[in-house]
UniProtKB/TrEMBL annotation:
SUPFAM superfamilies: MFS general substrate transporter. The keyword Cytoplasm does not apply. This is Nucleoside transporter. Belongs to the SLC29A/ENT transporter (TC 2.A.57) family. It is a multi-pass membrane protein. The lineage of its organism: Eukaryota, Fungi, Dikarya, Basidiomycota, Agaricomycotina. One of its GO terms (cellular component) is plasma membrane. Its main location: membrane.
Length: 344
């Protein structure tokens, strides 16, 4: 449990730092960040699914094979090495040097000139400096980089209040998802006519969800699937609560439940459709919320110096939604099986 707690703590700190960094480069970078997280989920669930196919726990022998575990550990190690290399390369890019380092140093001032907007260091103010030296590289404009006018003290509570609907939407979105996936969906059993064994069925539903989540986050990059109004996003998030009764109407076989009742949706296909739709709407809704919350382009209430704080508050709300959903899953399980949700 201590190891799990440390892993959770380090993951939260890392994710907040990454999100705050991505927010400085605009909504496009934020979308790419979240789509990348979902892509990792697809790879992990795919490896687990292949491992379940190779070493099915429901086989007559019941012998576990070390092959899939070794493959998964090797892939994880390779991914960590590639990530370290990518981070090292990122630190050397002109965009990172110009935007992030000046942001951290608190030296950026916004100066309006007839030829356009340039960014000047405080120690260069009042001096005749060549525009080419002072101007942020053109490629940063294409990325939608937003640089603060003056880096001052930012109130976290003020930012949280400004973005309360975005934060509530992203938190509730994950709370709904985690209340049923995977605590309840893992108890859904294949129907009598299913081609899956229970172990493979469970592994496959993880893959289906992660594919849906990745697709939902990916389409956030296309204007056709974008909308930014806080009321619309909040309604979108709240409406996802309908997934809770829909999934409970599938072939849920939790401990303590009677096995003689025929579920309303007695079909593997319908269950997988609900799961991929759950993942798709989760990725799409949270992606739009996380893109809009720290963006001065899509969220007119946020100031440029509040961008990183807005991103961190939104990420904190996301993590809060994960914790709330995990806690709610015990209550949902208590309702469906009438048993002690902390046992078995």
């Amino acid at each position: 449990m201590i190891i799990d707690a440390l892993l959770g703590l380090s993951a939260s700190m890392l994710s907040m730092s990454v999100v705050a960094l991505a927010a400085l480069f605009g909504p496009a970078a934020m979308q790419a960040c979240f789509a990348g997280q979902a892509a990792v989920g697809v790879v992990v669930s795919f490896v687990q699914f292949i491992g379940a196919l190779i070493a099915d726990a429901d086989s007559p022998t019941g012998d576990a094979k070390p092959g899939p575990t070794i493959v998964f550990f090797s892939l994880s190690t390779a991914f960590v090495i590639v990530s370290l290399g990518a981070h090292t390369a990122l630190l050397r890019t002109p965009e990172y040097i110009e935007v992030v380092q000046k942001w951290e140093a608190g030296k950026v001032l916004l100066v309006e000139e007839p030829g356009g907007t340039v960014y000047v260091d405080e120690d260069e103010e009042g001096q005749n400096v060549d525009d080419e030296r002072r101007r942020i590289l053109p490629s940063t404009d294409d990325l939608g980089v937003e640089v603060p006018q003056v880096k001052g003290r930012v109130s976290i509570l003020e930012v949280a209040k400004i973005n309360k609907w975005y934060n509530l939407a992203v938190g509730f979105c994950f709370a709904v998802t985690l209340s049923v996936f995977p605590p309840i969906t893992a108890y859904v059993a294949p129907t009598s006519s299913s081609m899956f064994t229970p172990t493979i069925f469970s592994s496959f539903h993880f893959l289906v969800y992660n594919v849906g989540d990745y697709l939902g986050r990916s389409i956030c990059a296309y204007p056709t699937f974008q909308f930014w109004k806080r009321g619309q996003l909040a309604t979108y998030s709240f409406s996802r609560v309908l997934f809770v009764p829909l999934i409970l109407m599938c072939n849920v076989r939790a401990p303590g439940m009677g096995l003689d009742e025929t579920p309303l949706f007695n079909s593997d296909f319908i269950f997988f459709f609900f799961v991929i739709l759950l993942g798709f709407t989760n990725g799409h809704c949270c992606g739009l919320c996380m893109m809009a919350a720290p963006s001065t382009e899509h969220n007119g209430r946020i100031k440029t110096e509040q961008i990183d704080a807005a991103a961190m508050v939104a990420q904190f709300s996301l993590v809060g939604g994960l914790a709330t959903g995990s806690a709610a899953s015990f209550a949902v399980r208590r309702v469906i099986c009438g048993c002690n949700p902390f046992l078995g």
